[in-house]
Amino acid sequence: MSEPLTEQKRKPRILSGMRPTGRLHLGNLMGALDNWIKLQDQYESYHCVVDWHMLTTDYAETADLQDNIWQMTADWLAAGLDPVKAAFFVQSRILEHAELHLLLSMITPLGWLERVPTYKEQLENIKDRDIHTYGFLGYPTLQAADILIYKADAVPVGEDQAPHIELAREIARRFNNFYGPIFPEPKTRLTPTPRLPGTDGRKMSKSYNNAIYLSDAPETVWKKVSTMITDPARKRRTDPGNPDICPVFDLHKVFSDQPIIDRVNRECRTAEIGCIDCKKLMVEGLNRRLAPIQQKRREYEADPQKVWDVLDDGTVRARKVAQETMGEVREAMGLVRK
Asked: Which residues contact 219 (CB under 8 A, 6 or more apart)?
């Protein structure tokens, strides 16, 4: 693999990551990947497969972990992330993350972790497994370690993750107050995320079984979209509809050309177009968007080792930075004999 371009070393740095849950869906594309692709020309980018984070909730389900890592990374590459511009790596292969997590946990007050909004929300919502664990409570500290070990200037996240970045800033500030200015305080770079409903109208999510995947064949996409709910008040073909409350129209606004969007918006309200034809028009635009992603993905499916090579190369690049940071941390904390 090629070394990162020289000018990248003068760019500000970002760190972003995803849990390896397998193939990615449209929500992942619009909520993260498209933004990462834009940022890779502006920042020195590090993209982390956060497999330890996956274990905080799915510690009992690891049989498919390695395949999930491959599938997710293949989708990153197929969508347009460039492994020359950005380093892709697996969190657990850089043990310095665990060391920094341990050291940061020594200075992180328990109350800071207990007040994280997603901690309370997931305790209330996840009922099919026991997440009253030390690892689950402390995962925001691990996330802070992931960010701070690369001295990231910014972290691109959705609004739901903003409190985690603020916690990372507080931990960095506390560390610096104790041991000297080692870590920059990372900025939150909010990612604009359009409303992307799943096939049942709820937020698209693998856990809801309502997702359209980047690797879904055109016939699979149509099978899923054909059953999507529309305006519930439109029971007959001759009934006028309201696109403003229709999940299919939400997808039109993301994947269809403007003339199609305008046509559907107008003709749905006057019953000139039915729901089936409306869905067919949306699927045409969606499949056009997915076609180049799927074509590129097939190249990696034909030679799966290419994906592992990208991760190997990125791990070497990321480990070098992590080791340099940990050298500074150990010295600052008095863990190095002088």
From this structure: none
- Return the exposure string of 159-190: e unless at least 16 CB atoms fall within 10 Å of the residue's CB, then b: eebebbbbbbbebbeebeeebeebbbebebbe
Element (H, E) at 58: helix 51-58
Distance CA 265, CA 270 (A): 9
Name the CATH superfamily for 6-196+304-332. HUPs (3.40.50.620)
What is the residue extent of each domain of the chain? 6-196+304-332, 206-295
> How does residue 10 score in pLDDT terms, banded at 50, 70 and 90?
low
* Torsion over CA: 269, 272, 277, 283 (sign): negative
- CATH number, span 206-295: 1.10.240.10
The tens digit of pLDDT for each residue in 28-43 reads 999 899 999 999 999 9
Q: Is 282 helix (H, G, I), strand (E, B) or coil?
A: helix
